[in-house]
Every structure is written in structure tokens, then in C-alpha cells.
Amino acid sequence: MSFNRLTPHAIAEALGDRMKTARLNANLTQKALAKAAGVSLKAVTNGEKGKSTLESMIAILIALELTEQLNSFIPKPEISPIALMKLQGKKRKRAASPSKSNSPSKSTSTW
Predict the structure, then answer these.
(1) What pLDDT, in 10s, does the model give residues 14-32?
(2) Considering its fold, how many domains does the chain have in total?
């Protein structure tokens, strides 16, 4: 199912249906899932209707052992090489030549 043209409400309902399917595949009742997730029974029923808070949804996903799915849900953005260069600043490419010292020379002064 593509979420491209769905409303936020429809996407939330679809995610709730997927959580319900995962719960049933794990052979858990709503009450057992609520206890395992540390949330109320109402939080589980609301989650399956697509009306869950983000924190409750994450707790349910942890209890269903689906946290690996979060990586594909919102993948971690990679930094482009150009942006990485800007963040790192300029790096030295060469060593500096030895500078002339400001110490007095070995020759004696004519003063």
C-alpha cells in the first residue's frame, strides 16, 4: 500500500490495522499486549484504530518486537559529501614551510 495520496487520518488507520495484524500474528490479546507494553487497554484499542499517541505506539511496537521496522518507517538521513565537507571545515593539505626565526643572528652587531 502506498501512502502517497492518503490523508493523515487514513494513514493512521492503516498503521493501526498493521499493528492489529502484528498483534494477532503474535497470538496476543489486546489486554496481554497492553500489559506487555506498559500501556492501558484503551491505548491499545485506540492504537489499532489509528488514534494512538506516538509514545503509546512506540511502546506497543517494542512489545511486539517490531522496533526494527522503525528504521524503514523513517530512515536516518545520510549527510551528503558536500554537506559533510562544510561541517568539517577546511582541512590542511600541505605542511607549512619552516619559518625564519626571529632570534638574533650569530653575527655580531656593529653598534
Answers:
(1) 999 999 999 999 999 999 9
(2) 1
**3-class secondary structure, 94:** coil
Burial class (CB in 10 A: 0-12, 13-18, 19+), 56: buried
Interatomic CA distance for residues 21 and 13, integer angstroms: 12
Number of other residues whose CB lies within 10 A of the CB of residue 63: 22
CATH number for the domain harbouring residue 33:
1.10.260.40
Alpha-carbon separation of residue 80 from 77, 83, 84 (angstroms):
9, 5, 6
Do the beta carbons of residue 64 and residue 26 sit within 8 Å?
A: yes
Does some domain include residue 94?
Answer: no
Residue with C-alpha cell 518486537? 65
Per-residue DSSP letter, 39: S
Strand extents, DSSP E, the chain: none
Q: Quick check: 69 pLDDT over 70?
A: yes
Grid coordinates representing 63?
Answer: 512489545
